[in-house]
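In response to reviewer comment 3 from the previous cycle, which asked for concrete evidence that the modeling workflow produces usable outputs, we include below a single protein chain processed end to end. The sequence was submitted unchanged, and the resulting structure tokens are shown without manual editing.
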Amino acid sequence: AWLHGFRRLRIRWERRDDIHEAFLGLATCLITHRHVQRLC
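The workflow returned the following structure tokens.
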């Protein structure tokens, strides 16, 4: 559900796995950063 806001990850457009995995890692970092900001 958290990744739904990232349009690029909803449908996999990249042919290469490493690029998709990089976007997934970036989205995870952004979600974590936003969550930590709310707690502080």
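The radius of gyration is 11 Å. We consider this sufficient to address the reviewer's concern, and the full set will be provided in the supplementary archive.
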